[in-house]
Write a structure and sequence with these properties.
single chain; alpha+beta; 33% helix; elongated
Length: 129
């Protein structure tokens, strides 16, 4: 009976721990300094995100342990497929490949920064007060 109780309690504790960490990530994250070419990121409670920098992107996010994964659904206010269809053919294939890959982020142990990486580039974002 004790083993059954433990098996039921452990998933609840794990879920609460993840939820607590997720709630601390909600809000706006931006690079230090005035580097507007680097993105700022807004994580919302409904697991939606918006990102701005050289362009705007929006989509969904999820947290797995210390990794944040951002999946882009819109670029500059249009669906990914519409955005790509408007690009010159020589750029469309590469854009499709790059946008289709989720953006990966690593959350610092102290939850004070997220390092996001995509296509060989990275940026360290800090939470805005």
């Amino acid at each position: 009976m004790r083993k059954l109780a433990l098996l039921l309690v452990i998933p609840v504790i794990c879920t609460l721990g993840c939820a607590s960490k997720e709630s601390k990530l909600l809000g706006t994250w931006a690079p230090d300094g005035a580097d507007s070419a680097k993105p700022s990121l807004d994580l919302k409670a409904d697991h939606k995100f918006s990102m701005s920098g050289k362009g705007d992107a929006a989509g969904t996010w999820k947290l797995q342990e210390s990794k944040v994964q951002l999946t882009i659904e819109t670029v500059n206010g249009t669906s990914v497929s519409d955005f790509i269809s408007k690009l010159p053919a020589q750029y469309a294939a590469k854009a499709k490949e790059q946008i289709a890959k989720p953006i990966e982020g690593t959350v610092a142990d102290d939850l004070k920064s997220i390092t996001i990486s995509q296509n060989g580039q990275s940026a360290v974002l800090k939470k805005k007060a």
